[in-house]
Amino acid sequence: MRLRSLLAATSVAALAVVAACGGGSDESSSGDQGFQEGGAGGGIMNANAPAPAPPIDGAQEGGTINVWGTSGLQSMHPTEAYFTNTTSILSNMVTRSLTQYMWNDDKQAMELVPDLATDLGQHNSDFTEWTFTIRDGIKWQDGSDVTMDDMVRGIKASFDNFAEGAFPNGAQYSKTYFKGGDWKGPFTDPSGDCNCISVDGRDITIQMSRPFPDMPFWGSFPAMGPLPKVAEGDVASYGNNPWSTGPYKFESFDAGTSRLTLVRNEFWDPDTDPGRHAYPDEWNFDVDRGDPTVLDRTLLEDQGDAQTAMSYDNIQQSSRQDAEGSGRLVTGPSPCTIFWYMDTRKPEWENIEVPRRLARPGTSTTTGWRPDSRWG
After folding, report:
1. Contact yes or no for 200/206 (Cβ under 8 A)
2. Comparing C-alpha atoms, which of 6, 78, 73, 71 is closest to residue 332?
3. Which of 1, 43, 84, 334 has its CA 20 to 30 A from that of 101?
4. Which residue in 220, 223, 218 sits closest to 78, CA to CA?
């Protein structure tokens, strides 16, 4: 069956100062609000999402999806993945973590739901301790069980995210919020420890250095998932072929050309997964193709290989009119939350209507993925 080429529309955010990749809306997730269906968090969290994930209407199994782009792929090591594209590919198809996002069609919104954990975590009264119960039946791509040691290994590796560490481009949340944040991590300081993680049966408890009500959101990153024993070897080699716990696994990856092929992981069990699907047989990524304008034109011409390709890149402004008229443009919310800066010392801000009119989240659009990248 022919896949209609898909492009992404340009971002309309104009005044963004910093874009922090994360989930949900502009409403706070602190406290218990939003942890239950219909809570004050805008329904963006659902601790009771069942597995398996509900089927996608009209989806068919089989075939290959080609994904083209121009932004390349940075580190594919789960501990270091922090760019939107690498995090989306790993989280949605390859690596599982404590929590995950899925698209709720009824609410037309993203929801944070459990993944390896059975819920979104249990916390103490001041959010300085979080406990997650890990599901049974999770396996690596070789058929071996994911152990609690693997979970601890993966979470502790996230401390090695600093300038001279093993994962200098990774996110800093563990070092910022977890107890023992001055530890340099197991790769840089193997004799040290954060002394912040304990295990009791299938429960893993993390101690914080200060209140961290957003731990369930940090739990959705690939860094908050397991690492096998083999990951303790060559960091670069493991980053080129990270072990899968999700519906797809690496078949080949060329970091130099950003070409990646994913095939089915036979040991992924959908009955343990509230959010993922595995409709296509294979995904081929070729996302370092040079000039984005040329990519737009190639997809719009819809000839040859372009007939079975899509892109998650934003389209160029020069291509927007043609793309909108093509019937192949898919738009959606930005995967990042846009923060705005306004100098409230200026007298014009005293009129509340000024910041109210300006402080609207910027939107950008994604392509061929559903809004949560869960075509896989």
Report:
1. no
2. 6
3. 1
4. 223
Domains of the chain, CATH where assigned: 6-358 (3.40.190.10)
Can you say whether the dihedral through the CA atoms of 176, 165, 152, 110 is positive or negative?
positive
Cβ(277)–Cβ(247) below 8 Å: yes
Please say if the pLDDT value at position 5 is more than 60.
no
Q: What is the pLDDT of residues 69-125, one digit of tens each?
A: 999 998 999 999 999 899 999 999 999 999 999 988 888 888 999 999 999 999 999
pLDDT category of residue 353 using cuts at 50, 70 and 90: low
The per-residue pLDDT for 307 is: 87
How far apart are alpha carbons 311 and 49 in whole angstroms? 30
Of 17, 8, 1, give the one whose Cα is nearest residue 63. 1
Cβ atoms within 10 Å of 339's Cβ, excluding its own: 14
pTM for this predicted structure: 0.81
What's the 3-state SS for the chain? CCCCCEEECCCCCCCCCEEEECCCCCCCCCCCCCCCCCCCCCCCECCCCCCCCCCCCCCCCCCEEEEECCCCCCCCCCCCCCCHHHHHHHHHHHCCCCEEEEEECCCCEEEEEECCECCCCEECCCCCEEEEEECCCCECCCCCECCHHHHHHHHHHHHHCCCCCCCCCCCCHHHHHECCCCCCCCCCCCCCCCCCEEEECCEEEEEECCCCCCHHHHCCCHHHCCCCHHHHCCHHHHHHCCCCCCCEEEEEEECCCCEEEEEECCCCCHHHCCCCCCCCCEEEEECCCCCHHHHHHHHHHCCHHHHHEEEEEECCHHHHHHHHHHCCECCCCCCEEEECCCCCCCHHHHCCHHHHHHCCCCCCCCCCCCCCCCCC
